[in-house]
Amino acid sequence: MMSRPQSSDRVYGIHGATSVLKESPQRVRRVLIADGFHGKRLQAIRTLAKEQRVAVKSVPRSTLNRITDGAPHQGVVLDVDSIVAKTESELQEVFATWQTPLILGLDGVVDPRNVGACLRTAEGAGVDAVLLGRSRSAPLTDTVYRTSMGALESMFVVHVANLARRLDWLKNQGCWIIGSDHSASTSYSDVDLTVPTVIVTGGEEKGLRALTASKCDQIVGIPMLGQIESLNVAVATGVLLYEAIRQRAQAHQNKEQDTKRRNT
């Protein structure tokens, strides 16, 4: 397989810096710490960098202010290699190892903060993979990383050339494709999410594209009881993913109870 070009990026803040140094130290080119910034957590970062044989450099605070455009950096910035998403070939290689896949597809989500928030929720929900359209989603920048609270580091994120075509492939592998649209008459809680499932949520302005919606086995909505018509995409994604968790946990509990009854 040909190697993909690696670009550079920055991660800043104590939580993000610690996460990268622990999870992917090979990505870190150097650690920049502001002169005059001290404390146990920064010292822990220095120690961790030393253990991972990563260079640490002290720089004026103004330097960190400049390279982070004034964003809160807590005295630490990492120069890192950008995260490269997985390929569709890699997805196909590992798919068979997932017993009951739960996959998230983001269709045209272009706000990096929303992408990051969706990734954070997906990681917490134990999602197997997240699909992003290569030309119809926010790139995996430091903003995505920060908003994901480091979840991007461990998630199986796949850039797909054509989301609709990849959904067809997943359907052929036995997945149930569930799309989300605020105008749908079927509630999200009325569909079976215990089977291999792909949940697809749409972009900030137009929601699911017509072609994507046509690939779904079911379109579901989240009931809105107030004056607002729809939820933010990241919030809606969280509702749907945790409904899948709830259903799967309930199904597992029911199975265990049935087993106990048969054995008594």
Structure description:
The chain is an alpha/beta fold and 264 residues long. The chain is built from 9 helices and 10 strands. It has helices at 14-23, 40-51, 61-67, 88-95, 112-124, 142-147, 163-172, 210-214, 233-263; strands spanning 8-12, 28-34, 55-59, 76-81, 102-107, 129-133, 157-160, 176-180, 197-202, 218-220. The strands form 2 sheets. The chain has a 6-stranded parallel sheet, sandwiched between helices. Strands 1-4-2-3 form a 4-stranded mixed sheet, sandwiched between helices. Helix 6 links the parallel strand 6 (129-133) and strand 7 (157-160). Helix 1 (14-23) runs parallel beside helix 2 (40-51).
List segments where confidence is low: pLDDT < 50 over at least 5 consecutive residues: 1-6
Largest sheet: 6 strands, parallel
Give the % helix.
Answer: 25-40%
Tell me the span between the first and last alpha carbons: 55 Å
Structural class, please? alpha/beta
Task: Briefly say what this structure is.
By secondary structure, this protein is of the alpha/beta class. About 40% of the residues lie in helices and about 20% in strands.
Blueprint (SSEs and pairs):
Blueprint: E1 8-12, H1 14-23, E2 28-34, H2 40-51, E3 55-59, H3 61-67, E4 76-81, H4 88-95, E5 102-107, H5 112-124, E6 129-133, H6 142-147, E7 157-160, H7 163-172, E8 176-180, E9 197-202, H8 210-214, E10 218-220, H9 233-263
Parallel strand pairs: 2-3, 5-6, 5-9, 6-7, 8-9, 8-10
Antiparallel strand pairs: 1-4, 2-4
